[in-house]
């Protein structure tokens, strides 16, 4: 069982984009288990509702917040709905995205480049853009962005994903510098391979085992590993941490 640093987040309102599955869903569970009221975002309403139901079934507070986070108008409606029900969002985990499928750059179509930039970089800007004014006004907020090892050094992921996730790192640093004096902290996570449904479908058990062996800790990441890092970054224990990028790599250290 994973050890938790167990911050108390009672009374806090959190939004997790991409909360309907994978890393985002584990983050929703972790935040709710530590007392936060969690708005669960994604586009697949059945998947969102499954996360909400499993949180509420164990006594946690969660609400469905479906929206395509590449759409500013949908984000505005989402904010109005969540803040109208629960009050201001103080914890923002902008995690939606994830199209890192390998494609040689010569075969990467311009439309795909634009789509990946939209989903994996612009979505983070649009999400922050919607919630930042309120955080600055209230002088309270913790934002966690989602990069990837693919945005830290060359990998087998496609070039658009690499560029988008590198962009997320710099966006986070820029923002942290800009709004630190306004009481808002901004940090970024850069995980390596975290087992998710797409990987389970695309790779055989043997391929997954081989991949796991490449990590000094001898296993792939788990969504819960990332959720625990989120708990730290949004907790009072991290009150002097901003502009950081936390590489979650099972020991595959970034040079
Ligand atoms: N797994 C890894 O190895 C790994 C490593 C490094 C970084 N990451 C990053 O971590 C994040 C989560 O990855 P994951 O592995 O948990 O992937 P996942 O299981 O495929 O989940 C992706 C999530 O993003 C949501 N999403 C995608 N586009 C969206 C949009 N336009 N609007 C709203 N929601 C959207 C999906 O919601 P719906 O399905 O409901 O639309 C889903 O909840 C991604 O940003 C990914 O790049 C993952």
Shape: globular
Domains (count): 1
For the report, how would you describe the main beta sheet? Answer: 7 strands, parallel
For the largest beta sheet, what order do the strands appear in spatially? 3-2-1-4-5-6-7
CATH topology: Rossmann fold
Range of helix content: 40-55%
Order of helices and strands: EHEHEHEHEHEHHHE
Helix/strand/pairing class, anyone? alpha/beta
Full CATH superfamily name: NAD(P)-binding Rossmann-like Domain
Task: Give your account of this protein's structure.
The protein has helices spanning 22-33, 45-57, 72-86, 110-138, 159-179, 197-202, 205-213, 223-234; strands at residues 13-17, 37-40, 61-64, 91-94, 141-146, 184-191, 245-248. Helix 1 crosses helix 8 (223-234). Helix 1 links the parallel strand 1 (13-17) and strand 2. The protein has one domain (13-194, 222-246): NAD(P)-binding Rossmann-like Domain (Rossmann fold), CATH 3.40.50. 46% of the residues lie in helices and 14% in strands. It is an alpha/beta fold and 255 residues long. The chain has a seven-stranded parallel β-sheet, sandwiched between helices. The site of NADP nicotinamide-adenine-dinucleotide phosphate has 30 residues, from helix 1, helix 4 and helix 6.
Can you summarize this structure?
The protein has 255 residues and is an alpha/beta fold. It has a single domain, classed as 3-Layer(aba) Sandwich (Rossmann fold). It contains eight helices and seven strands.
Comma- or semicolon-separated keywords:
alpha/beta, 255 residues, binds NADP nicotinamide-adenine-dinucleotide phosphate, Rossmann fold, 8 helices, seven-stranded parallel β-sheet
